[in-house]
Amino acid sequence: MKISIGPGALVAAGFIGPGTVTACTLAGANFGFALIWALVFATISTIILQEMSARLGIMSGQGLASAMTAPENGPIVRWTIIILGVSALAVGNSAYEAGNLAGGALGIEALLSGGATTHKLIVVALSVTAAGFLLFGRYRHIEKLLIGLVVVMSASFVGSIVITRPDLGEMIKGFAPSIPEGGLLTAVALIGTTIVPYNLFLHASTVRDKWSDGSAESMKAARADTIASIGLGGIISILILSTAASALFGSGIAVSSAADMALSIEPAYGSAAKYLVGIGLLGAGLSSSITAPLATAYALTEFGGIRQDGRIFRVIALGVLLIGTFIALIGVKPVQVILFAQIANGLILPIIATFLLVAMNRKKLLGPHVNTVLPNLLGGLVVLITFGLGLRLILRALNVWP
Q1: What burial letters (b/e) apply to 30-60, b meaning 16+ CB within 10 Å?
Q2: Which of 371, 391, 393 has its CA nearest to residue 186?
Q3: Ramachandran angles phi, psi of 341, nearest 5°
Q4: b vs e for 282-311, b when ≥16 Cβ sit within 10 Å of the residue's Cβ?
Q5: Cα–Cα distances in angstroms (integers) from residue 172 to residues 39, 149, 214, 237, 395, in the given order
Q6: According to DSSP H, which parts of 61-138 are helical?
Q7: Does pTM top 0.85 for this prediction?
């Protein structure tokens, strides 16, 4: 069957952002290949959850937020969901947007070697550019732009892994789940940078618009798009971690800038490495800074029963962009902002994924297309693992769990 690339690529563009580059580089530089398993788990989990989201959008004709707040839930449950959902999206996506803009700015700084003042000017410039696309861009144009921007970063690491030739034995060991000393934060960040909660809202809404006939053939096309796009994105993430592990692990280099990240592909590209990383981070930052506000606007307008092609939709999208811009400008180190955003995503994920699982088991909503036993087991496992990692992270922060 011919694969029609579309909404799945938007999901991939959403998670292959500066956060992915940063978290994967930090993971490889600090822990070698030990956390590859987290990316494998995250990629498979993303495919499972996004397939559910796509099936929901195509077969029910509703987005995730609408399904979560169906009248049959009763007023108490509905308002609880709305409050939790809006809070999670507002906090998570604002932090995520700040990371996107900070990451894009890192990319330009790698090209220009600018200082703090330049960083702030670049963040503002990126914010204005993203605002232009959100206000005046059409869906098909944005889709093509995002796919093109992601391809730039992907190409550099695909070529790099061939030339750097990582230790395959050590790489294979990384597929066995284990958390090295001090690696919990990074493991949660890797999961949070791949299984992005807002993508569940974005996917359900965009597949509904692309494949609106609700046919089995449309569902097959959406499933193929999801597996191909997200699978490729996961492979790229593993390549980024592996190149960083090969070049930086044990070197004593602390990764705090795009120039440090460029060292991971310098063996393959020499002096051109900083330009590839710079352009790639810029593209990844710009692409994700557009998808995060879009997804938030889709979700919040659905929660409120508001039209998704009107003024309020754009106001919400621009609001997320402005909050993210403010956070990115207040002086926090860019790499720290990006990593915090990924951790926030990892903590929010179990909440949104649980809501999705509940919706996918409603026969009134999906009829014969409700989850079978296997998707429920797999989805439940994803929720349990991500909840456990997040809970352990919180308990460790409170000094309850060593």
Answers
A1: bbbbbbbbbbbbbbbbbbbbbbbbbbbbbbb
A2: 393
A3: -60, -40
A4: bbbbbbbbbbbbbbbbbbbbbbeeeeeeee
A5: 13, 30, 41, 15, 31
A6: 64-68, 75-112, 116-136
A7: no
Q: Which positions ≥6 away from 15 have C-beta within 8 Å?
A: 46, 193, 194, 195, 196, 199, 233, 288
Task: Please report the domains of the chain, with CATH numbers, ordered by start residue.
Answer: 7-397 (1.20.1740.10)
Cα 206–Cα 16–Cα 68 angle in degrees, nearest 5: 40
pLDDT tens-digit map of 37-83: 999 999 999 999 999 999 999 988 888 888 877 776 678 877 877 77
Measured distance CA(111)–CA(275) in Å, rounded: 6
CA distance 173 to 171: 5
Which DSSP letter does residue 330 get? S
Model confidence over 284-334: pLDDT tens digits? Answer: 788 788 888 888 888 888 877 777 677 888 898 899 899 889 888 886 665
Distance from C-alpha of 246 to C-alpha of 396, rounded to nearest angstrom: 30
Tokens representing residue 11 in the block = 């999901």
